[in-house]
Amino acid sequence: MSKSFEPIPIPREQKIREFRHRILPVIIFILIALFVFYLWNKRVTEAGFTAKVMADSSLVASPYDGTLKYYSIAPFDDVEKGDPVARITRVDSSYLQARLDHIRAMINQVEVGLEPYLNQQRNLLDYESIRLDNIDYRVQVATLKVEVQQLKAEYERAKILVDKDGISRSEFDLIESEYQVAQTELDEKIELT
Is 76 left (phi over 0), alpha (psi -120 to 50) or beta? Predict the structure, then answer.
């Protein structure tokens, strides 16, 4: 009596959960391993080192004055004794000295030529400075005139008030002295102009 049983269907959610837990981690591991292998081949190189090369150097001199031209060797070329290194275009040192003296004379001539111009500019600056001082002095005189007028009006009011016992004699004396000091200062500044 063998009865055949129908297989029980597995729900879809359980199949997805089974895939997530068993198969997906293996796939992700294989993908990451392949990516690491790819990066390793592309980026990692053999171990190497950096070095500094020290070359032998020698002093090369010429018994003649001149300008160095036409190099016949390049850096780090092998050079033996007697090999030509460069050509020297000979120039007489007295000729170079004469050219240098000529240039110095031209510079001196330019400096001497600029002196009158610099003096003129200095004079203009001095003139403008004096003009500004004059304007400032006139402003001071005008300000002092206004101040004297105000003190005079205050003095006139105080004169009336002291007669009517509106202010004390000491206050009047103080106002009168301020007015006289300002008037004297104004008179002296006007005399100086």
Answer: left
- What H or E segment, with its residue span, contains residue 87? strand 87-90
Q: How far apart are the first and last CA of the chain?
A: 145
| Distance in angstroms (rounded) separating the CA atoms of residues 84 and 71 | 9
- What does R_g of the chain's alpha carbons equal in angstroms? 52
Give the count of beta carbons closer than 10 Å to the beta carbon of residue 12. Answer: 8
DSSP state of 19: I
Taking only the tens place, the pLDDT of each residue in 75-131 is 778 888 888 878 877 777 777 788 889 999 998 888 888 888 888 888 989 999 999
Q: Which amino acid is at 80?
A: E
Alpha carbon of 129 to those of 36, 123, 132, 134, 193: distances in Å?
80, 10, 5, 9, 17
Angle (CA) 47-53-57 rounded to 5° is 175
The pTM for the full model equals: 0.39
Nearest CA among 91, 50, 58, 84 for reference residue 70: 84
Handedness of CA 144, 149, 154, 160 (dihedral sign): positive
Element (H, E) at 66: strand 66-69
